[in-house]
Amino acid sequence: MDSSEPLFSKDKFLGLPQERRHKKLALILKHAYIMMLAGEEADKALENYRKTAAYIAEKESPLATLKEVSDAFHFHAKEAKWNLREDSLLPSPRQQDREISSSKLPIFAYLDSLRSAFNTGSIIRTAECFGFSKVFLGGATPSPECSQVKKAAMGTEAWIEWEAHALIKSLPRPLIVLETVANAPSLYDFKFPHTFTLAVGNEEYGASDLLLNEADFFVTIPLRGRKGSLNVANAFAVAAAYAANELNRIDRKG
């Protein structure tokens, strides 16, 4: 069949539940969008979409630009109740990745038996973005060998060193644990040393007893809302951004 011909007969398409119809249309548009982004001819794919959308009398939208195709994709994704993860989104037309990174900072991350592959991948991505030299994965923390970790890391697992089954006693010192313990100083008052390991505990129980006993310092993120904690990946991002900025500021002064 010519690629400009609909993938479904009218009877077959109308036989699908409404949400599946919209998801099929969204996927056709995603294919066309990726072709357009790559500079390839997408007219046949877009014609396929128009003919298929006509089965449900969908009002024809302008599809001349990436933005217009993106808007149509997200309309159908919403109608399909498609809960889009970041790896399901359309690729950005803005190429923000650099061929090489700036010089790494002498700072490290330690993840203490995280449960979530998404949180693990997100922290790896954050650590790479802020110039951490290495991520140590402790206990049962899933590694980038897990496909879900790789999806959340968005390719950064190939750009930063990581080590699975890392032992706390072997981590670069000092060991700074991000945790809500009594009398822990605010992140914003703490003077970060030139090199350190920033550690976070798991989503359910926080830092393990072993990590708490081995910690050289504790820091906490001051919160004003009623909720007393942040998602571990979000908490790491806040601390990593602040710590990296402090080191960069000191280097600029020095």
TrEMBL record:
UniProt keyword annotations, A-Z: Methyltransferase, Transferase
GO terms for biological process, alphabetical: methylation; RNA processing
GO cellular component assignments: cytosol
InterPro entries, per the entry: Alpha/beta_knot_MTases, rRNA_MeTrfase_TrmH, SpoU_MeTrfase, tRNA_m1G_MTases_N
Pfam families: SpoU_methylase
Listed GO MF terms: RNA binding; RNA methyltransferase activity
Name of the protein in its database record: Putative rRNA methylase, SpoU family
The species this protein was found in: Estrella lausannensis
Lineage, top ranks: Bacteria, Pseudomonadati, Chlamydiota, Chlamydiia, Parachlamydiales
